[in-house]
């Protein structure tokens, strides 16, 4: 079997597992933040924190052992635009609140029969393609060119290494400090410790991120036809998947498209097996408009930020890239703005 075919099959498998786990656990950054800030339930945010910790630990082990060269990914670039990454994160985070979930959550809910998520996925895909290659692309490129900088230290390990310790020690210190802090934060919560399903969800999702790196960076490392080194992310892959469904002739399957298909299929199979499948729709035109508007912001912002709450919040952070921390800060601030304060998104009475 060729490397590219193996990567596609593995991507499908990773998506299947993510779809099942996402449906059973409710794994979603927006739901986590809403539970933590609004509803007083901190379990989901601890699940997310544990997933980040596991993703960093496993991914940095792969990088440190030489199995995967994460320097080939989009996250560890020497030249990037911090303002555009941050602004994209803000737009994505606020759009996530408007749509009541991120792109990956929309795929999971779509598999369960949520027709609102179908609208979110389609609008997100269109707006992402417009920002990548369409009408909005020139403005995005101009913003990036006007604000980008080139740095010598593009990750926390490289920053520590510049201060004296060697590369291996710097990688271990940076990863250990963040993993320890996130793990303590997660397990300090008694309700989380009493929720084995949430604990397992965090561990599995974190391992899926590392699995994506291994699949694309190790199994896909063909000298003659290498695949892009990446892992779980959903903005560009959703856009590519919709385009592939429409215009498959002349286009090629890739890891991201296979993952998107796997998430929907995994959620659908799990929903049917557990009796959770049921059709849902919008309660009002206003509800639909707000949801579609949020999806558009997620598509635009996700492209600007080089990823979503998964693509940057898990996969990007697993590389310890400086740009990923900037993008995630924007996502978190945008989400908080939508949940609290003057820009709070008001609940719909008919929703």
Automatic annotation (TrEMBL):
Membrane topology: Multi-pass membrane protein
Keyword Transport: yes
Record's keyword terms, sorted: Cell inner membrane, Cell membrane, Membrane, Transmembrane, Transmembrane helix, Transport
Pfam families: Sulf_transp
Subcellular location: Cell inner membrane
Predominant location category: membrane
PANTHER family: INNER MEMBRANE PROTEIN YEDE, SULPHUR TRANSPORT DOMAIN-CONTAINING PROTEIN
Protein family per UniProt: Belongs to the TsuA/YedE (TC 9.B.102) family.
Protein name listed in UniProt: YeeE/YedE family protein
